[in-house]
Amino acid sequence: MSAAPDRMHRPDSDLVDLVFDYMRERLQYDPVPLDHPGDGEHLRAQLSGLLNQDGNNPADVLKLYDHELSRAVISADSPRYLSFIPCAPTKAALLFDMVVSCASLQGISWLEAAGAIAAENQVLRLIADRAGMPDSAGGTFVSGGSAGNLSALVVARDTARRKLAEQGRPSGPEVRLRIAVADQVHSSVKNTFNIIGVEAFKVPTVDRRFTGEALRAALAADPDPETVIAVVGTGGTTNEGIVDDLQGLSEVARERGLWFHVDGAYGGAGLFAPSVRERYNGIEHADSFVVDPHKWLFAPFDCAALIYRNPQLARAVHTQDASYLDVLHTEGDEWNPTDYAYHLTRRARGLPLWFSLAVHGVQAYTDAIEAGLTLARDTAQLIRDSEHLELLFDPQLSAVCFKRNGWTNDDYYRWSQQLLADQIGFVTPTGWDGETVARFAFLHPGTTMEMVKEILDTME
């Protein structure tokens, strides 16, 4: 006779204690170890037969995860993780992420989740205020910058099509539409173009920066500028941390009636840092804006804030029509996050950030972001003073690109692999004008100059 069908859902105090003890230990790691890349053959052997008809002892499964699986995951929350863009969630955010999970908190509609949505919207309002956007601004939390860019640019495309139709001009899918971008734009934006069927209108950068002057000149020289419907500026490129000329881009966008989107997935958190705030001037004119709190706002994966200047335009595009959803759209205070991105089902992924902000206060976030900026500046100076290292670009935010004179492509990769093997740091090479170079991405407030010096010393 088979076991009762509800046995998986019954309270199990032993299982709760087992998992909570592990979480308590993990939360108290100081520092968090880097760990290592995994070996596929070894991992497959460890997992073999695990998913069987009868299940396994929970302690054995957790032990397998702890001793084998978790150690084959490089820890993005380690202060020695300096590649890509790290993740350094606060303990408060991590703990509340457990609350979101254990209570199955979703954030689909006001009818079902008004409390969660009200808290998320409070955070969205805080970010919108830092960007200088109007009181009308609003949006939703999505899984990441890729999802945010896709959702926002779908609204840009469909808003342009509606305008064309109102003017009595062809507006169907066959009509050529282009969006102005620089060559440094994030790969997710390029991917979005392929998904939504628009073309890139590529504009050359000036000193690696997308400027309003360059955009204006490119449009003036183009034989078909009317097909350009939007412009995407970057609030901190992933590789170098460069903030585009958002002021100049916004002026051209307003002159020509273009949708202005800002991808601030990594760098948008700099809006909270007084030392760099002026670099973002012009973002207040954005029609849409994305920032990933799971990057520089110290939230857990996966959390991105998508904000629209006029959310009703997004609602007209993204609201899904189905008979069982009609009850969600009523009069009153309702705010349905499902109306502002391509998603429907979603977890209340903004709540861990809300809890942490409420616990620690906004100033603590400003201080932590400024710490990363200071570390980048100090590291840049250390590199300038070195005889064998060369700084490639004065850091605008917290990314630092540099090279070791005389090294080849293979030298960088061997160096990177040895750093990780020795658990000194996770620093992967990157590209710079066709050349392989090194790059630091500072974000974790626990990263110290002593750690940086230890890594740089290995390059001598």
Structural account:
It is a single chain. The protein has 460 residues and is an alpha/beta fold. The chain has 15 helices and 11 strands. The chain has helices at residues 13-27, 40-47, 58-69, 91-102, 110-131, 145-166, 187-196, 212-221, 246-256, 293-296, 311-318, 351-360, 362-384, 409-421, 449-457, and strands spanning 138-142, 178-182, 199-203, 228-234, 259-263, 288-291, 304-308, 389-391, 399-404, 430-432, 435-441. The chain has a 7-stranded mixed sheet with strand order 1-7-6-5-4-2-3, sandwiched between helices. Strand 4, helix 9 (246-256) and strand 5 (259-263) form a beta-alpha-beta unit. Helix 4 (91-102) packs across helix 12 (351-360) and helix 5 (110-131) crosses helix 12. The longest helix has 23 residues, at 362-384. It is globular. The protein starts with 12 loop residues before the first helix and ends with a helix.
Core attributes:
single chain; 460 residues; alpha/beta; seven-stranded mixed β-sheet; four-stranded antiparallel β-sheet; 15 helices; 11 strands; globular
Short description:
With 460 residues, the protein is an alpha/beta fold. It is 41% helix and 12% strand.
The number of strands is 11
Q: How large, in whole angstroms, is the Cα Rg?
A: 24 Å
Shape: globular
Widest beta sheet: strand line-up:
1-7-6-5-4-2-3
The biggest sheet, with number of strands, parallel, antiparallel or mixed sense and barrel status, is: 7 strands, mixed
Order of helices and strands: HHHHHEHEHEHEHEEHEHHHEEHEEH
**Proportion of beta-strand residues:** 5-15%
Tally of alpha and pi helices:
15
Q: Approximately how much helix is present in the residues? A: 40-55%
* Beginning-to-end CA distance, first to last residue: 69 Å
Give the overall average pLDDT: 96
Global structural class: alpha/beta
Unreliable stretches (pLDDT < 50, length at least 5) are: none
